[in-house]
Amino acid sequence: QVQLVESGGGLVQAGGSLRLSCAASGSISSINAMGWYRQAPGKQRELVATITRGGTTNYANSVKGRFTISRDNAKNTVFLQMNSLKPEDTAVYYCNALVVLVIRYDYWGQGTQVTVSS
C-alpha cells in the first residue's frame, strides 16, 4: 500500500506560478513511477507529468516548457513546479504512484485545486 498526500494548490493569476508537493509513504520501494494528473470540470482526467524511479520525465504537450516535475528521494516527495500558468490549467491536480508487480496498481492522492484567473 502507498499513501499520497498533496499540498500546494491555490488561486493564482494568469502568468503566475505554483508549486505542488506530493509526499509518499508506505511501500515506497515498490513505486516504479510517480506523476501528476489533472481533471477539469466536465473533462476526463489527463496526464500532466511523470517521473520514473530512474529519473526519466514525461510531460503533456500542453505543459512542456512551463511545468517541471522533480523529486526528493530522501523525503519521498515529488514536486510539480508550474510557471506561466494559464486559465486552462485550472483543474484538480492528483498525485499518482504507479506500482507494477504482476499487474499494474495506481495509487492516488486526494487532489488539490488549482485555479488560474484571467
Plain-language structure description:
- The chain is mostly beta strands.
- It is built from no helices and eleven strands.
- Strands 2, 4, 5, 6, 9, 10 and 11 form a seven-stranded mixed beta sheet that branches.
- The radius of gyration is 14 Å and the shape is globular.
- The termini are far apart.
- The model has no long low-confidence stretch (mean pLDDT 95).
Task: Present the secondary structure layout.
Blueprint: E1 2-7, E2 10-13, E3 18-26, E4 33-39, E5 46-52, E6 57-59, E7 67-72, E8 77-82, E9 91-100, E10 104-108, E11 112-117
Parallel strand pairs: 2-11
Antiparallel strand pairs: 1-3, 3-8, 4-5, 4-9, 5-6, 7-8, 9-10, 9-11
Got a strand count?
A: 11
Detail the poorly predicted runs.
Answer: none
Proportion of beta-strand residues: over 45%
Structural class based on helices, strands and sheet pairing: mainly beta
Q: Give the count of helical stretches.
A: 0
Tell me the Rg in angstroms: 14 Å
Distance between the termini: 40 Å
Measured as a percent range, the helix fraction is under 10%
Can you give the mean pLDDT? 95
- Given the C-alpha coordinates, what overall shape results? globular
Helix and strand element order: EEEEEEEEEEE
Q: Main sheet, how many strands, which sense, barrel?
A: 7 strands, mixed
Summarize the structure.
The chain has 118 residues and is an all-beta fold.
Q: Could you list some keywords that capture this structure?
A:
mainly beta; four-stranded antiparallel sheet; single chain; 11 strands; 0% helix; seven-stranded mixed sheet; 118 residues
